[in-house]
Structure formats: C-alpha cells, structure tokens
Design brief:
Elements lengths: L1 H22 L33 H4 L6 H10 L2 E8 L2 E7 L9 E2 L5 H13 L10 H4 L8 H4 L4 H6 L33 H5 L1 H9 L3 H10 L7 E5 L2 E6 L1 H12 L3 E2 L2 E2 L4 H7 L15 E2 L4 E2 L8 E2 L11 E5 L3 E6 L4 E7 L11 H14 L1
Antiparallel strand pairs: 1-2, 1-13, 3-5, 4-5, 6-7, 8-11, 9-10, 11-12, 12-13
Helix pairs in contact: 3-13, 4-9, 4-10
Length: about 375
C-alpha cells in the first residue's frame, strides 16, 4: 500500500510539472524593445542667407479657405508682420501696411524671453547662481533698500517678478536707486514690474564681466542666425529685429535650447523651470515666459488673480513672449508650432496678454481644424 501511494505521488508530481511546462513558457531572454514614440524632425533654416523651406496647407490638411479671413483679421488689427512655422518650416508669412520682411520691429516685452535665455546660459557657464543675491553682481547700494533688505533679493526674484520692490512708484520703468523702494518681502507677492526685470542686464553684465548685449550676441543671436540689436530707450532696453529673427528664436525654444545639432543651452533643469510655473503666486508665469493651461493668472497692471486659462482657446502647453502693443511669440510644443505677430496694438495698449490673444487663436483654430 505504501509503495502504491508513493508511486501515485510521484506520477501526480510529474504530470503537474509537465502541465506547468506546457502552460508557462520560459521567458524570452531577448525580449523585443518597446517602440519609441514617433517624433517629427524639425527643420532649421541655414545661417547666413534667406533660404527657408516651406510646407503647404494641403500637406498639413489645414483649411485654406480660412487664410483670407485670417489675413483680413490681422490687417484690421494693425498687424505688420505675421509668420507661422510648422516643425520649423514656413506655412504662412505675410506683411501688412507697407511693412516688409527686411524691416526691424521692436519686440517690447516679448524680448524678456531673450533675457531669460541669456541668464540661463550665464548660470550654465558658472557665472551666476539664481539663488545668489542680485547685489553679488550689481554691487551693494543698487536700490534704496537697507543692506539687509537688499541681500534678500535674488537673481531668481528678478526673473519671476517677485522682488517685492514698490511697483506703485510714479515710474515703474525707472531703475534709478531712488525709484527702487521696499514694498513687500521677496517671494511674497507677484507683480509685473519692469524695473527689476531691466536690472537683469546689469546682473548678467556683472556676472559675465562682459556687456550684456555682446554676451547675448555671441551666445544666442549669432549662433542661430538671428539679426537685430538692443536699443536703449529711456530706462528700457528694447530689442529690434525682423519677424524671421523672432521666429528663429521661437524655433530654438521649440527644440528646447538646441539649434539643429548645436546646443545653445544644455541645462535641462533651467530650461524646464523657465517654461513652467516658477512660483505659486502666478501659476501662468515662468522665468519671464507666459504660460497657458493653468488654473489662474495675473496680468500686468493688476493686483488681482483671475480664474481660468490665460488664453482659453489656445493649446494648454503654449508658452509665449508677450509685449506691449501686441507683440506675440507663441511656441506650442505639442503641435510643433512657432507663431510670430508684430505690429501696433490691436485693441489695447496693455502690457503682456490682451484680449487679442484669444481672438487670434479663434482665427488660428479655424485655419488648422
């Protein structure tokens, strides 16, 4: 009896192992790798000539019937220059009101994005740190604050509009120390104050021991084939260039800091911080870039926070350089888009975002549907 039981146990074990072998195949020692997500190669126009490839509306399956209404809308709203790039190639390029492709136009505050990018290169090269006091690079006594108050303001505060300097002074563009007064603790309040932004020129100059304009030209402008120049106008340092130069800078940011195969900024941490929410006070603001798709936003000239997205009809991942009189640089990574609009004010001379942004995106959505 014991022998029969032992044989039964052995037979059951063999059958079980056999079944297990049949139903549970051995793992493949060389599994197939998961496919990489498809990526669209970007086109980069050559440096040193006017060659720039285009792509047709038909190829993109965009609505050609909406081009004329878009151009009418742009012309009626005081536009001088307008460009759409798709994956780096020109889809539309149009000039109005006697303006031409070779003429320079001011970027106004859309040029803040140029300064932010330049600051990123300076910190990447070890010339400055965002958490350092700005007085480390400008010297003490640059403001009317006490020495203790002054050293609390960091480079990052200048990049994020959180210095706490008094924005109610009679001239908020004034960078004289008499105009730079204490109002709030740094990082405690967000307000679109131009003077602290303008001081970034002096911060970068002091850090790299080279004039800000020359450093920018060497590190960004000349490397990506831009043209243009910074022009001192009162307290402001304005950038003037062609619309195509603005489009080149947009393309650089669409490719996250690399021009074709040439790295212009390699610090991924800084680039991501620059183009995402930089502080909790205004979720729609990065390092001098405006951000769409957030739950609330603040705008220049106001102490209030408004619910909703900055540009409701635009893609959520849009980042933008926005300047007075409706200078627009839109970058939309999910769609491979760079869009440039230069001109006079459409319907408001406000700084930064205006109602024209959403009106324009209504037209753009009709074109691209």
């Amino acid at each position: 009896m014991k022998t029969k039981s032992l044989l039964l146990i052995l037979w059951t074990t063999v059958v079980f192992m056999s079944c297990s072998t049949e139903t549970e195949p051995a793992p493949n020692p060389n599994p197939e790798p998961e496919p990489e997500p498809e990526t669209q190669n970007l086109y980069f126009p050559p440096i040193g000539n006017d060659t720039w490839e285009s792509v047709s509306l038909e190829t993109l399956a965009w609505n050609a019937d909406q081009v004329d209404p878009l151009y009418t809308f742009l012309e009626d709203n005081n536009t001088d220059a307008f460009i759409i790039l798709k994956d780096g190639k020109i889809v539309l390029e149009q000039y109005f009101n006697g303006f031409s492709a070779s003429q320079n136009h001011t970027w106004n505050s859309a040029a803040k994005t140029l300064t932010s990018f330049t600051a990123g290169i300076a910190q990447e090269e070890g010339f400055l740190a965002l958490d350092d006091a700005s007085s480390d690079y400008m010297g003490s006594g640059w403001s009317s604050l006490t020495p203790e108050q002054e050293v609390m303001i960091t480079v990052k505060n200048h990049l994020t509009m959180t210095t706490g300097l008094d924005y109610t002074v009679s001239n908020s563009f004034c960078t004289d120390k008499e105009c730079l007064l204490y109002k709030n603790e740094p990082n405690s309040y967000w307000y679109y104050h131009n003077a602290p932004y303008t001081l970034l020129d002096a911060i970068i100059t002091g850090a790299v021991q080279q004039d800000f304009k020359d450093y920018f030209n060497t590190k960004i402008r000349d490397k990506i084939g831009m043209q243009g120049t910074w022009v001192k106008t009162g307290y402001l340092n304005l950038y003037f260039s062609t619309a195509r130069s603005m489009a080149r800078f947009g393309l650089l940011n669409l490719n996250e800091g690399t021009w074709e195969d040439a790295p212009i900024m390699t610090d991924r941490t800084y680039f991501n911080a620059m183009t995402t929410t930089s502080q909790e006070l205004n979720s729609s603001y990065g390092y001098l870039w405006w951000l769409n798709g957030k739950n609330s936003f603040r705008i220049p000239g106001s102490e209030d926070s408004f619910p909703g997205k900055l540009i409701p009809d635009a893609p959520d991942d849009l980042v933008a350089g926005l300047g007075a009189n409706d200078q627009k640089l839109y970058v939309v990574p999910s769609m491979g888009l760079v869009i440039v609009r230069m001109g006079d004010a459409a319907n408001s001379s406000e700084l930064g975002p205006t109602t024209f942004d959403n009106q324009l995106w209504t037209q753009l959505n009709a074109l691209m549907e």
